[in-house]
Each structure stands twice: as C-alpha cells, then as structure tokens.
Amino acid sequence: MAKIFCVANQKGGVGKTTTAVNLAAGLAKLNQRVLLVDLDPQGNATMGAGINKAALQSSIYEVMLGMADVATARARSETGQFDVLPANRELAGAEVEMVELDNRERRLKDALAAVDAEYDFMLIDCPPALSMLTLNGLCAAHGVIIPMQCEYYALEGLSDLVNTIKKVHAKLNPDLKIIGLLRVMFDPRMTLSQQVSLQLEQHFGDKVFRSIIPRNVRLAEAPSYGMPGINFDPVSKGAQAYISFGAEMIERIKTL
Ligand code: ATP
Ligand code: MG
C-alpha cells in the first residue's frame, strides 16, 4: 500500500512545490516508487519535474472529473525518475465543476486507489489555499507535511491550517495526521529565523523535522531546467538537505 502525503500550507510561496518535487526525487534515489500529484492549477510541480504543462494530452483535471484515469493521465519525470500526475490551468475549472458532483471531496482519493499498488509513495503538491482542491488532497492522504519559513507571520497562518486538518480528521479522513513541520528557506544568520525555529520546536516538539532546508539558490534555479534541485546540483547544500529529509521521512513513517 502506498503512503500518501500532502505538502500543504495555504500561504503562497513558502516552498511547497520545491519540497514536493525534491522529496519525490530524493525518495526515487532511495529506490522508492513515487507518484508526484500536482494539485495546483499553476502546474509548477509539473514543470519542475521536466514535463511541459502546455502540451498535456490529459491531466489531473480530467481525472478529478472522471473523464480519464490516473494510468492514462500520468507522465514520467525523466529528470527525477518518478511519475507525475500533471496539472495546468484547466484544473482551476475543476473547482467549480466539481460542485455538482457526488462525493466531491473524495474524487482524488478514489482516483488514486486504482494505482495504489504501483507506488511506495504518493506526494500531493497542494495549491496555496484551503480550497476544494486542497480538501481533496487532505482526504486522499495519510499525512501532511507542512513547509514553513521561519518568519513572524508564518505562525499566524499555521493555526488555520492545523484547524482545517483537525476538522478533516474528525469528519472526512480519520487516517489524517500532521507528519511534521519542515523548516525551509532557512537563513541561520538571521536572529528572527533562529527565534521562530526555537518557538516551533518548543510548541510542536518532535513534530518538527530535524532536517532543515537552507535558502539555496541552486534549488531556485533548478525548475527553469525542468529538474529537481537534488538532480540539478547534487552536492549543493539545498540538495543535501532534501536528501537528508527524504531519509528522515522514511524513518518517520515506520513509526506511523
Ligand atoms: P505557491 O504557493 O505559489 O504554490 P510554493 O509554496 O509551492 O508556492 P515554491 O514554488 O516551492 O513555493 O517556492 C517559492 C519560490 O521560492 C520559488 O521561486 C522557489 O524556487 C524558491 N525557493 C523555494 N525553496 C527555496 C530554498 N530553499 N532556497 C531558495 N529558494 C527557494
Ligand atoms: Mg507551489
């Protein structure tokens, strides 16, 4: 059975996609069979995995609306050695079109069930909103990985996300857990980063991953080459940090 994780945070630009793509590539390097699910109409995870979102035959949009199955819509990331259920801006329409469908928060869960045996991990890159798309991600997953920047406003948004996860856990998906908070774009020279990081550890204890992802320009450059950062420049600090995060994830899920 595949382990399914959402990478979620309703704040924009906090490193969700970078985390999803690099964790997918990191797990693939550790010989895991991975499906990266792009649940964001921006299609950034699709592009970052080296797949042209403008030239898709079918995508997660058709899958969510029951017009294609995952096996048909998925593509292969040659640069990352994992499969991708790709997205593009069409997906924004699904949000509206799903309103009329039965079981609308479980569309993704039901679709992914058909390929469950083919993967060890499925990673879902969520859009920056607590929307029907994100709800589909949370209903399909066993756990949530929350990337966050260690800045003052980061903590403010966190309580909304944690409350949403609690509600989904209570009403829709009893399997759902917070796997952990991942500190990303970390700048150890900033006192504020250190302080917020410490606050997170005090408040959330071992829910905070030990691995810390530094701010690293190689991670930001990699998507323009259609490559995960860890394949683009494997010796960079950012790549090393995501590889260590991959190993920590494998260790952590043993305790789930
Ligand atoms: P959105 O909410 O729009 O989906 P996101 O949460 O998925 O955004 P990313 O797209 O992963 O965030 O990252 C936002 C920007 O920050 C991107 O330009 C990305 O390349 C850059 N970035 C992410 N992580 C790092 C890092 N560790 N070091 C340097 N740049 C980073
Ligand atoms: Mg993103």
Automatic annotation (TrEMBL):
<feature type="coiled-coil region">
    <location>
        <begin position="91"/>
        <end position="118"/>
    </location>
</feature>
<dbReference type="Pfam" id="PF13614">
    <property type="entry name" value="AAA_31"/>
</dbReference>
<dbReference type="InterPro" id="IPR027417">
    <property type="entry name" value="P-loop_NTPase"/>
</dbReference>
<dbReference type="InterPro" id="IPR025669">
    <property type="entry name" value="AAA_dom"/>
</dbReference>
<feature type="domain" description="AAA">
    <location>
        <begin position="3"/>
        <end position="178"/>
    </location>
</feature>
<keyword id="KW-0175">Coiled coil</keyword>
<dbReference type="InterPro" id="IPR050678">
    <property type="entry name" value="DNA_Partitioning_ATPase"/>
</dbReference>
<protein>
    <submittedName>
        <fullName>Cobyric acid synthase CobQ</fullName>
    </submittedName>
</protein>
